[in-house]
Amino acid sequence: MDVKIKLTGNTLTACIEGDIDHHNAKEIRECIDQKIEEESPNLLELDFSKVQFMDSSGIGLIMGRYKLMHILDGKLQVINIPENIKKLIKLAGLASLNIIKE
Amino acid sequence: MKPINEMKLEFVSKSSNESFARATVSAFIAQLDPTIAELADIKTAISEAVTNCIVHAYKSSIGKIYITVQIFENGKSIIKIRDKGCGINNIKQAMEPLFTTGGDERAGLGFAVMQSFMDKVRVSSKPNKGTSITLEKNIIPRFIKNGQPS
Fold first, then answer.
1. Can you give the residue range of the structural domain that contains A91?
2. Residue A59 burial by Cβ neighbours in a 10 Å radius (0-12, 13-18, 19+)
3. CA distances for A73 relative to A13, A38, A40, A84, B105, angstroms
4. Which of A95, B40, B50, B61 is deepest in the core (most CB within 10 A)?
5. Contact A92 B109 (CB under 8 A)
6. Across the interface, do A53 and B22 touch by the CB < 8 Å criterion?
7. Percent of chain B scored above 70 by pLDDT?
8. What is the pLDDT of residue B149?
9. Fold classified for B5-144
10. How confident is the model at residue B148 (pLDDT cuts 50, 70, 90)?
11. Contact assignment for A64 to B19 by CB distance below 8 Å
């Protein structure tokens, strides 16, 4: 598991690599939240292109960041979702939040 | 019907074992020649069940988690995940989507995922005795997927 974060203008992009499960969700979350606090971006992009596996801990991670960005008057977008994770994203109803970028 | 193969797994409820559990079970089930999508369904359901044992059953302790897997000639797989933890008081409530006692960062989707990704889910639980989850998944044999006999 690894998170690569970069800032482009007011957009913070966090590229998550590997698995998102209960075991490493906390580390991923802390890593992203610390950068949000430092940079106060308008937009947080969660780049899932390198996520190998995700369970509902990943949904918790997305929802938590959605709430955090909402509090900060910013927006969240989840980008590059791999095919095998789309089923879970759909089940969780995240499409209705308008944060999934196809 | 007798299984064509079976295995047992026992490990302690450390979160670092979540990936071990799903990888091991999916490696065993690979014998049924599942698609990537079927294997992803199973991995996700196992991850949910094992996480429940770690987060809820053994909330403030470390206990043992037991998994048995049986596979059958017709492609059926039966996976049992058992713990000797605190048990579930209200199974119906625990299985409701979005219900969680796990705090803000937990989605409350564990059972909903198991139910929609697997063909059958059975839960039996006794407070202070433990919980047993039985998951079934029918792996469609390759010759049917391909539309011709092998």
1. 2-101
2. buried
3. 17, 15, 10, 31, 20
4. B50
5. yes
6. yes
7. 98
8. 60
9. Heat Shock Protein 90 (3.30.565)
10. low
11. no
Q: Using a CB-CB distance cutoff of 8 angstroms, which residues of chain A are in contact with residue B113? A: 55-56, 88, 91
Q: Give the active site residue among B48, B96, B105, B138.
A: B48
The C-alpha atoms of residue B48 and residue A67 are separated, in whole angstroms, by 23
Residues of chain A with a CB closer than 8 angstroms to some CB in chain B = 19, 21-23, 25-26, 29, 53-57, 59-61, 63-64, 84, 87-88, 91-92
For residue range A61-81, what is the model confidence (pLDDT) as tens digits?
999 999 999 999 999 999 999
**pLDDT tens track for B64-108:** 999 999 999 999 999 999 999 999 999 999 998 888 888 777 888
| Nearest chain A residue (CA) to B51 | A22
C-alpha dist (Å) from residue B100 to A31, A90, B15, B97, B134? 24, 19, 18, 9, 20
Please list every residue in chain B whose beta carbon sits closer than 8 Å to the beta carbon of residue A53: 22, 40, 43-44, 47
Using the structure block, give the residue that is written with the tokens 């047993």: B132
- pLDDT tens figures, A15-54: 999 999 999 999 999 999 999 999 999 999 999 999 999 9
The catalytic residue among B10, B73, B90, B106 is B106
Which residues sit opposite B1 in a β-bridge? none
Q: Is the pLDDT of residue B142 over 90?
A: no
* CATH code of residue A19: 3.30.750.24
